[in-house]
Amino acid sequence: MHKEREGAAGVNKEGVSKTIIELEETYNERFSAGDPGGYLDGFADEVSYFDPILENLVVGKEQTVAWLSSIYSNPHIVRSEYLNPTVHVGDSGDSAVLAYNLKTYVLDEDGNEKQRRA
To answer: How many Cα atoms occupy the beta-carbon half-sphere of 115 within 13 Å?
Structure first.
């Protein structure tokens, strides 16, 4: 029988990881369809957001929502592929970090899928 990994405080790290990945996929589906609300509504007040096009980390929900709202436009994504999703859960279960590579696909002028950014 498979026993799920637990942290020092009895935290079910595999369960936490699965939940976080499922939430991310749900938020991304909404974003891909033109609704950024999933991400924006799901942020905690103390969120920190890393964006590779910025020099500094965006800290706080208000600042993060403002930044994403300023750059958001409907991406018209038809399919996403999550590569190497990894969640590191703290032993106490009060923190977790999600990392992954994401490939997104849109339709070209002929209606064929193409990778959004290569």
So the answer is: 5
Q: How far apart are CA 19 and CA 4, in angstroms?
A: 14
Handedness of CA 33, 38, 41, 47 (dihedral sign): negative
DSSP code for 4: P
pLDDT digits (tens, 9 = 90+) for 55-97: 999 999 999 988 888 877 778 899 999 999 999 999 999 999 9
- For 23-61, write each residue's pLDDT tens digit: 999 998 988 888 878 788 888 899 998 888 899 999 999
For 31, 77, 108, the CA distances from 73, given in Å and listed in that order, are 10, 11, 17
